[in-house]
Amino acid sequence: MKLSNINLIIGREYATRVKKKSFILLTVLTPLLMAALIAVPMLITLYQGDDKQVISIVDGTGLLESYLEDDSHTDYRFLPQETTQESLKSSFESFKSSTVIYVSPLDSAMDASVTAYSKEPLNMDTKLAIEGKIRQALRDQKLKALDMENLDEIMQQVKSDVRIDAYTLNEEGKEKKDSVELYMIIAYILSFLIYMFVFMFGSMVMRGVIEEKTNRIVEVIVSSVTSFELMMGKIIGVALVALTQFAIWVVILGGMMIGISGVVSSKMTDKMAEVSAEMASSSLPNAHPVDMSDMGDLGEIASVMDQIHNLNLGYILLCFIIYFMLGYLLYAAMFAAVGSAVDNEADTNQLSLPITIPLMLGLFIMLHTFQHPSSSLSVWASIIPFTSPMVMLARIPFGTVPAWQLILSIVLLALTFVATAWISAKIYKVGILTYGKKASFKDLFKWLKYKD
């Protein structure tokens, strides 16, 4: 084996693929789409809309006017109590409202029925807000009927707001705040990306082998280099293409995340000033300092951004690259062997089944792992080489992987690649020069027995 020959194949594979328009478009568009998937929901959450809706209400209870107050998005108009429910429907257009609501008089249990009419389905946020206000009004009325002294004060005293602040302790006893939901999201994304990229770039190697074999280019190439050098050069060349894309994606996505973080921080500062001003002018004796709970959706977004910044992103990214590269090398060697054994891509389905099954199995176990990262199934699947790229990446964001498990997993994955590459090379050597016959598993085992 000559390294110079492998370097030539690597250079050829790399240069051929990075100069393609599809590579350039995919490299640029993919991070834009990924960033859009992250940024658009955040921006939509921040955007409240400019349209102001008018809601007309017939309040049979006589309790709601002090609860349903106008805001920047909704105007409430209270109609005479004698307005009937039938007249609301028959004269809907005359009210010039997007929605008309009929609230019945209180029954013996001091409850009321509520009916809404509109030309278009009632906005869910508006529906929930009105339900909450009416529920609060009826509750307050029932409490007043109890005629208990200092009832409001008693209710405030018994009211509790419980939130769990979760921390994990390391071996030195130092604490770190946890966000299990964020860990689960990151674990799912990383594991799925490993699965998708390993399959995508592994299939790219297989298609490249089939193309060269079909065009008979391989016959010319193997006259100058060995089949093993050709296979490894092709695998490593595609790996460098993948790393190039990753490097560009990390730079683009990093810049976008910095920009998004700046926008959120700016809006959060403005919102905090607004909330502080409201509290300063409030006459409530129990006014408290501003915290994230006062910020609404904006506070939640800022909290998530802060938790992301507190993650060891460098460690997670390094593990992602290591497991992607080793996982890709393992599966690409098998894909190369399959590509050499067929004359066209349609014949690969049967032979590629033993490759796709472990990949799919790893994906399914990953769905269990990001909910139970320390279970026996998760631990063993993160060590077994054929599933470890997906499963280990589902455990790493939780920070529960001991160093010995991580090292053992990486070593086993690397050794399995070496063994698989040796087996695949024996198949590849015979397969690339075999034409006109659809190879079976029996043929592959026969080729393995051929002496070099």
> Portion of residues in helices?
55-70%
Strand content: 5-15%
Q: Roughly how many Å is the radius of gyration?
A: 32 Å
Structural class: alpha/beta
Total of domains: 2
Low-confidence stretches: 282-296
Got a strand count? 6
Question: Helical stretch count?
Answer: 15
User: Outline, from the CA principal axes?
Assistant: elongated
Order of helices and strands: HHEEHEEHHEEHHHHHHHHHH
Strand order of the largest sheet: 2-1-3-4
The biggest beta sheet is recorded as: 4 strands, mixed
* Mean pLDDT level: 79
Note down, in words, how this protein is organized.
The chain contains 15 helices and six strands. By secondary structure, it is α/β, with parallel strands linked by helices. It folds into two domains: 3-42 and 179-279 and 288-448, no CATH class; 53-151, D-Maltodextrin-Binding Protein, domain 2, CATH 3.40.190. The strands form two sheets. A four-stranded mixed beta sheet has the order 2-1-3-4. A two-stranded antiparallel ribbon has the order 5-6. It is elongated and about 95 Å long. Mean pLDDT is 79; it is low at 282-296.
